[in-house]
Amino acid sequence: QVQLQELGPGLVKPSQTLSLTCSVSGDSMSSGSYLWNWIRQPAGKGLEWIGRVFTSGHSDYNPSLKSRVTISLDTSKNQFSLKMTSVTAADTAVYYCARSPPPDSSGYYGYFQRWGQGSLVTVST
Amino acid sequence: DIQMTQSPSTLSASAGDRVTITCRASQSISTWLAWYQQKPGKAPNLLIYKASNLESGVPSRFSGSGSGTEFTLTISSLQPDDFATYYCQQYQTYSSDFGQGTKLEIK
Hints:
The complex is a heterodimer. Chain A is mostly beta strands.
């Protein structure tokens, strides 16, 4: 059973770069055509998809965050990462990593089948 | 963006009740819709994908239906463990969008 765990600092200063890593265990990231995602949730609010990376290395981003976000993967370490630049207090949230199944027979993909437990990141001085 | 609107925002019900949550999309998404359950302090848990497909391990009292712009999640007989917040999510476009959530409370 695949497990995902978010790792990274819980406190980031405004204007700095938020960096998180998702460590994947129980399966090799390069063994299938899964998609690897980041999703966030401010306290008491709803879910926001941040972006995804394919095993090919191609990535897609939420248009509202695209200018500040980079998602990359390192299959040799079985992990993928999120970098978000120029953070503000509005970026304070629980950040989740999640895995999507490979594209189905129609070529569609994008729901989230396995999730990490989440990591709270606070943006504050 | 595709706007996903859930109703109601809050639903009060009792154990044993049959409940339905509605999710409307601002444009057609065919059947590219998923439902999740989230409990406080926990990650969301996938219930339904492609509008009506039950994820493995999810109790059969959960069911989903709909296509195009209107979708429903039904719980046939509420169990105490079902009181949680439910989210819909579209994945018809490359950019995913979630509904705002429906909190299912004990009456």
